[in-house]
Write a structure and sequence with these properties.
single chain; 166 residues; globular
């Protein structure tokens, strides 16, 4: 149910989506929705930690970066430690905040709680927090990402195939 809510929220967005998650290993549907949103002109920003506390999840997350960047998603690498906030803000009008990560384990296996906020003041507060995270993050460019080595690419592919069990 939470996966469907996240998916509907992404498709509902018209202007902007900002997502903060420490573990980004999305379902195919959420991944496709984010790429389609960016391609249809929605400003999509993904905030993830530069260094992850789970090595395997970190490599799996990075396996999605290139197609996201190619679609126009802006990826921001948070440099202030492990970014553990799980929040989404769509069009500054809907915020989802809680314990759900954008990974299959959170969306399908774990018991997670997320609250949907529609109140303009609450959405503005979530937006301010996420903007502070953006200011402490390094944007990742497609050209920069494409310079990574063959070993990194191989580990990303291996973890991509393992992502359903991470």
């Amino acid at each position: 149910l939470i996966g469907q809510s996240v998916l509907a929220s992404i498709y509902r967005a018209n202007r902007s989506i900002i997502i903060s998650t420490p573990y980004f290993v999305p379902s195919e549907a959420i991944f496709d929705a984010l790429c389609h949103a960016a391609k249809r002109g929605v400003k999509v920003r993904l905030l993830v930690p530069k260094r992850n506390d789970s090595v395997m999840v970190g490599w799996a997350s990075r396996s999605y970066y290139e197609p996201l960047l190619q679609a126009g998603v802006q990826i921001l690498l948070f440099e202030g430690g492990l970014l553990h906030t799980k929040a989404m803000l769509m069009d500054d009008e809907l915020a989802l905040v809680g314990s759900v990560n954008l990974d299959i384990r959170s969306l399908q296996l774990n018991f997670e709680l997320t609250v949907a906020l529609f109140n303009p003041v609450s959405c503005a507060e979530v937006g301010e927090l996420l903007e502070r995270y953006c200011a402490s993050s390094q944007p990742l460019s497609l050209a920069q990402w494409q310079t990574r080595g063959r070993l990194s690419r191989g580990l990303e592919r291996l973890m991509y195939f393992m992502s359903p069990i991470l």
